[in-house]
Write a structure and sequence with these properties.
Number of helices of chain A: 14
Shape of chain A: globular
Largest sheet of chain A: 14 strands, mixed
Structural class of chain B: mainly beta
Radius of gyration of chain A: 31 Å
Radius of gyration of chain B: 18 Å
CATH architecture of the largest domain in chain A: Sandwich
Oligomer: heterodimer
CATH class of the largest domain in chain A: Mainly Beta
Number of helices of chain B: 3
Structural class of chain A: alpha+beta
CATH superfamily of chain B: Cupredoxins -  blue copper proteins
Strand content of chain B: 25-35%
Helix content of chain B: 10-25%
Distance between the termini of chain B: 31 Å
Chain lengths: 607, 286
């Protein structure tokens, strides 16, 4: 028997889905909801964006694109129902619980109780008379097919034949030819989803959720349903699952974790790569650095296009190569995107003094470093420094031939260094909706205001990116906080040589300690064959025990240093195991010392 | 030139118009042009006592030029046009008739229930244009969304009284849908081809007509009585006219739009006031 769940669930989440579904079905009736004032909750938590009248015109709405949902239209993107149908209560609850990835809508599952969220579901439905009719029927979703290579290949063929690329582009980065003209039902410009970042998908990024969106469409947006073509026999349901698997395969298997450090391995047999396509990059793990809109310094920007950049680095002891890649549908300024950019500026312009008024800006990337390293954790202000602690910025623009090195003492204050002091080069590529910018610079340029990039020490590094065709320029772009660049040394030999030595020493000390304990336990008269017998005074015993303990602690410290070296060099496995060894040795050392102390207390002297 | 454009795909347009008007006639049961082959029998109107209304929708003043459409990236569609295609925002015939005006009985039929036509009307996507540009249907009546181009179109409807929807048609295919509730007017767009748009007028009776470039409008087989007839245009909004239908006679319809009316309120896509769902139907016109 097939149990029809309101969401396409795999085994892992089936239980959770079922729980949500059952609780939604069981608890929505007014008996529970009536105990909680949905309207009061709405006014408190929702009206700031969605407006007290539910039309989506709250005070914060004009800082958001896409705009908050207008509940009076009863148009909901995330549904289990066919296009043109209302969402189920469970559908609305899902969005309240989980939020809308890629938009300003957060999840509320940890903020509000189940009763409160269900009361909000009921309240939202009062904004449209459509909900006065019969409850909508969810679609029947088939079970997920397996995401085999064949399924993905068949999905890629469907991607071509049903022309997903018209909006989403050939590589899925939202750069299709129709993309610049897209708008939502309220007439606001809207981007085709970047299918390489499934954590930003409206409606969720799992295969099941992608399949559901293909079946239901995202009502209120340009994303249509593809159910009709399955019903009409143009493609099979299995092919639609294949399409879902293919779309899923465009994103990383795991949502990227935010990591603090970008490690640059040292190339020992040659020099750093000089092109973005060099195969050396394939062996370098890209680190994801998230960016957010610059909303500190006016004019602010609430609609950053670049949600994050992927960073890779290599060095050869002389030169650093830093490769930064990110999704950007167009090479700005692109005339086909001019209208889009202009409309975004007009819609999103926060009214700040100095805000951009006209489209036509280039794409830009800035990588910044402090001009000098401090001894502690003190770093310049993350927005291009401050008067006391300037930053050294490497700026690349899509309308300029090469990168420019500047000294900045705050956002918008960058002063290019003189011609003779320009040491950064940039090689760039824009293809299939993606920028790749490769910066290269000598570790030590000799320039007075250039940071000497030290090997074996973490250097603060931050990023800023602008998409000109999204109306971004000047202070209005996307920024990151400080991260670190770490130029690896070749892994120290000691990392590999020390373990056996330490192990042997540990064994030796351990045997000695056991030997001593055995001797103590068996009494002075006992003799153990083949081991030399000797009697120690308490003082010597104590000294020996404490010595062993101290030696163990010393080795723990050494192991911890190896762990640090391992972590820093990017060998997290070495780092981990050395940390474990260090911890064990510390425990052993402390145990030995405490044991010896107890055992050699003065009261034992008279025994 | 505009006339020739119309002739270029005249067959489809005229067919659709005939269908629309024909369906309009079925309810009345006495419409000579309609051919009530499939109309349900249970019409509340006595054909013997019915009258008619017909006349012209005209345009005065200088019609604005319609924006040209760049189909250079869409070979399939470009090949279907011998001249540069344009938007159909304001289409004025040689005789001054204004095309794409939806003329319908707005008030006076409230007490009557009309059967739903069983025959679907067709909204074709051909050459990356909707044909016809303005379509009338009865509530519950099927309309067929047809893709004759064989490239990806999506049909994104944004009604307020009815439910919006968004369906994709990546190949030559047809999809039937209907609207349960009367609504003036439902906008349709294709997001893949941002220039493609159409409007569907949904009424709960068969008395509606969409003008061609000759501007003629005809409402056949109305029961005797007083009516308010409205003419809707996508740019110039609405005009209304009071008419009286007398058995066997034809009342004259006359609507004149002019270039200065572009600021008029065009009823379309207004949010629904949840407490007063009908309130937004207040229509501004002179």
């Amino acid at each position: 028997m097939r149990i029809a769940l309101p969401w396409p669930c795999d085994a892992r989440v089936a239980a959770a889905c079922l729980a949500v579904a059952l609780s939604a079905v069981a608890l929505v009736p007014t008996s529970v909801a009536a105990q909680v004032d949905g309207e009061a909750l709405y006014v408190k938590w929702c009206a700031g964006c969605h407006g007290e009248d539910g039309t989506g015109n709250g005070v914060a709405a004009n800082t958001m694109l896409p705009r908050p949902r207008d509940f009076t239209l009863a148009l909901y993107q995330v549904r289990t129902t066919a296009t043109g149908e209302l969402p189920t209560d469970a559908d609305i609850l899902k969005v309240i619980d989980e939020g809308m990835p890629g938009t300003a809508m957060p999840g509320w599952v940890d903020v509000l109780s189940q009763e409160e969220r269900l009361a909000l579901v009921d309240h939202l439905k009062t904004y449209s008379r459509f909900f006065q009719g019969d409850a909508p029927e969810p679609l029947e979703f088939s079970s997920a097919t397996r995401g085999t290579d064949e399924a993905i290949v068949s999905g890629q063929e469907v991607y071509q034949s049903v022309e997903c690329w018209r909006c989403h582009g050939q590589q899925g980065r939202g750069d299709g030819e129709s993309a610049p003209t897209l708008e939502d039902d309220a007439g606001f410009p809207i981007l085709a989803a970047d299918l390489t970042e499934n954590w930003t998908f409206n409606g969720g990024g799992t295969v099941e959720e992608i399949y559901r969106v293909l079946r239901t469409g995202l009502d209120g947006t340009p994303m249509p349903t593809f159910s009709d073509i399955v019903d009409a026999g143009v493609i099979t349901d299995e092919q639609l699952w294949g399409l879902a698997h293919y779309v899923r395969s465009l994103s990383p298997e795991e949502t990227p974790e935010v990591r603090e450090v970008v490690s640059a391995k040292r190339i020992t047999d040659g020099t750093v790569p000089e092109t973005v396509g060099d195969e050396a990059w394939e062996a370098v793990e890209p680190i994801y650095v998230p960016l957010v809109g610059q909303i500190v310094v006016k004019p602010r920007w609430f609609n950053p296009r670049v949600g994050g950049v992927w960073v890779q680095a290599l060095h050869d002891g002389q030169e650093l190569a830093l490769l930064v890649s990110w999704t950007d549908p167009s090479l700005s300024p692109d005339p086909t995107w001019a209208d889009f950019a202009q409309r975004v500026i007009e819609i999103m312009g926060p009214g700040d003094e100095g805000a951009a008024t006209a489209a036509g800006a280039p794409d830009q990337l800035v990588v910044q470093f402090p001009t000098a390293l401090s001894d502690g954790m003190e770093r310049p202000y993350f927005l291009q420094g401050d008067p006391r602690r300037p930053t050294n910025t490497w700026t690349w623009r899509s309308d300029a031939p090469d990168a420019v090195e500047s000294i900045a003492r705050g956002l918008g204050t960058a002063v290019p260094q003189p011609d003779g002091e320009q040491h950064v080069t940039a090689v760039v590529q824009h293809a299939e909706g993606e920028w790749k910018v490769l910066f290269r610079r000598s570790l030590d340029t000799g320039g007075a205001e250039d940071l000497v990039l030290p090997v074996g020490q973490a250097v603060p590094m931050a990023f800023q990116a602008w998409d000109g065709d999204n109306g971004e320029s000047g202070n209005q772009g996307a920024v990151s906080t400080w991260y670190f660049l770490f130029l690896e040394q070749p892994t120290p030999v000691s990392v590999y040589v020390a373990p056996p030595i330490v192990l042997v020493l540990t064994l030796l000390f351990g045997l000695l300690a056991i030997r001593q304990a055995q001797w103590e336990a068996t009494g002075a008269g006992a003799r153990v064959a083949r081991l030399p017998a000797f009697r120690l005074t308490k003082a010597v015993e104590r000294a020996f025990g404490m010595g062993v303990g101290l030696a163990w602690l010393g080795m723990a410290a050494a192991a911890y240093r190896s762990a640090s070296l391992g972590w820093d060099a990017g060998h997290s496995d070495l780092g981990f195991w050395w940390t474990v060894i260090a911890a064990l040795m510390a425990i052993a050392g402390l145990s030995a010392m405490i044991g010896t102390f107890i055992h050699t207390l003065p009261r034992d002297e008279g025994r | 030139m505009i006339d020739r454009l119309w002739k270029a795909r005249g067959v489809a347009v005229i067919t659709a118009l005939l269908l629309a008007v024909g369906c309009g006639g079925e309810g009345g049961g006495s419409d000579a042009s309609g051919g009530g082959d499939s109309g349900p029998a249970a019409s509340p109107v006595d054909a013997a006592t019915a009258g008619h209304a017909s006349g012209m929708v005209t345009f005065s003043g200088m019609a604005p030029a319609n924006a040209e459409i760049d189909m250079s990236t869409e070979d399939v569609c470009a090949a279907k046009h011998s001249m540069t295609p344009t938007q159909e925002t304001v289409v004025v015939g040689d005789g001054g008739g204004l095309a794409n005006v939806f003329v319908y009985v707005k008030e006076g039929l409230e007490s009557l229930d009309f059967p739903t036509p069983t025959q679907a009307v067709v909204l074709d996507q051909d050459g990356c244009e909707y044909t016809p540009h303005v379509l009338g249907v009865q509530t519950g009546q099927d309309y067929t969304l047809k893709n004759s181009d064989g490239i990806l179109h999506n049909i994104n409807a944004s009604p307020t009284e009815n439910r919006g929807f968004n369906v994709s048609q990546p190949v030559v295919m047809e999809t039937n849908r209907s609207f349960p509730t009367a609504e003036i007017m439902v906008p349709l767009i294709c997001n893949v081809h941002g220039w493609m748009n159409a409007y569907i007028g949904v009424v709960d009776h068969p008395y509606f007509s969409v003008t061609g470039p000759d501007g003629s409008a005809s409402l056949q087989g109305l029961p005797p009585g007083d009516y308010v007839v409205e003419a809707w245009h996508e740019l110039y909004g609405t005009l209304t006219q009071n008419i009286t239908i007398v058995t066997g006679e034809t009342a004259e319809l006359s609507f004149e739009f002019n270039a200065d009316m572009s600021a008029a309120h065009v009823p379309l896509g207004d949010p629904i006031d949840p407490m007063h769902p009908e309130s937004h139907r207040t229509v501004d016109h002179q």
